[in-house]
Amino acid sequence: MKTIASAKFRIGDIVRHRIFPFRGVIFDVDPQFANTEEWYQAIPESIRPRKDQPFYHLFAENAETEYVAYVSEQNLVSDESGEPLRHPQIDEAFIRGEDGQYRARTNLAN
Fold first, then answer.
1. pLDDT tens for each residue of 58-86
2. Are the C-beta atoms of residues 29 and 76 closer than 8 Å to each other?
3. How far apart are CA 46 and CA 59, in angstroms?
């Protein structure tokens, strides 16, 4: 029986890519690869990650732009910079606490 690794990062964690110059906040986690085979094959084989690990959906940004990224756990590290993120969708999904951590918004409608 194949075991699925537990996720190292959580929703709301700020991470950066191990190879490429971008960072972001996690808004969803897949316990293993759940994107298209076309997407997977587009990654150069020399840096293509394993499929049997958690993959994270990020509100990501680099120096030029903001976007949504899908990244394997092996390619992420914690971002300890303390710098806020500017991605426009973050405010829709998260509240940034005084401690700089992002917490998922909850529906407070009564």
1. 999 999 999 999 999 999 999 999 888 99
2. no
3. 25
The three-state secondary structure class of 35 is coil
Report how far residue 83's alpha carbon sits from residue 100's, in angstroms, rounded to the nearest whole number: 8
16 forms beta bridges with: 23, 77
Residue 68's Cβ-side half-sphere holds a number of Cα atoms within 13 Å equal to 7
Q: Return the beta strands (E) in 1-110 as ranges.
A: 14-17, 23-30, 55-61, 66-72, 76-78, 94-96, 102-104
The closest alpha carbon to 104, from 31, 54, 29, belongs to 29
Task: Give the residue among 103, 106, 92 at the shortest CA–CA distance from 14.
Answer: 103
Tokens for 55, please give them: 């993959």
The pTM of this model reads: 0.88
- State the number of CA atoms in the 13 A half-sphere of 31 facing the CB: 5
